[in-house]
Specification:
alpha+beta, 5-stranded mixed sheet, 3-stranded antiparallel sheet, 5 helices
Length: about 180
């Protein structure tokens, strides 16, 4: 019989400085065990506290130090494989584009709504201490997730053309071992 123990970790509430007027974020780390195997679930809740939509996407590489223009160009206009996201949209392929992390996953968060990103990792017997891994995940959440309000991003793009590809769910779960290689 498998035994399951749950330990709820700490909650850190903070504002991302550049977006303090657009988005409130909370990070929670929960630990649970199945037999003697430790699992951690790091959850980031993004709450849109404005009167306009906020768009969220995740970059494979850190966005630290990039301008708004560079962030938009990197995600929408830079080729990822044979085509850029904007090229696929302009070819009227929007209905055929799945939500792919780092390539086409865009979440539109309406005012007074939230989006949750959860990262699950299993602590291996020889792995780093849980708090060290948590710091890596927290760094990823702070440096690889782009948040942009409607009035800012609409200077670069006609957002109506992306309606068909927005990520529909209110939650995204990432398995850290598959992602963090």
């Amino acid at each position: 019989m498998k035994k399951i123990f749950i330990i709820v970790g700490f909650v850190t509430a903070y504002f991302i400085p550049a977006l303090s007027q657009e988005l409130k974020t909370d990070i929670e780390n929960s630990v649970y065990f199945i037999d003697s195997i430790e699992f951690n679930l790091v959850t980031l809740e993004l709450r849109n506290t404005t009167k306009e939509d906020v768009y969220v996407w995740i970059e494979e590489d850190s966005i630290h130090g990039l301008t708004t223009d560079q962030k938009v160009k990197s995600f929408y206009f830079k080729n990822k494989g044979d085509f850029s996201l904007i090229q696929l949209i302009n070819e009227n392929l929007a209905n055929e584009i799945p939500s792919i992390l780092f390539k086409s996953l865009i979440k539109k968060v309406p005012p007074n709504d939230c989006f949750i990103i959860s990262i699950l990792y299993k602590k291996e017997s020889n792995a780093a201490i849980g708090s060290e891994e948590f710091k890596k995940i927290e760094s990823f959440l702070k440096n690889n997730i782009v948040y942009m309000n409607h009035s800012t991003i609409s200077k670069f793009l006609d957002l109506k053309q992306f309606e068909a590809i927005y990520y529909k769910s209110k939650m995204l779960c990432i398995d850290w071992k598959d992602f963090n290689k």
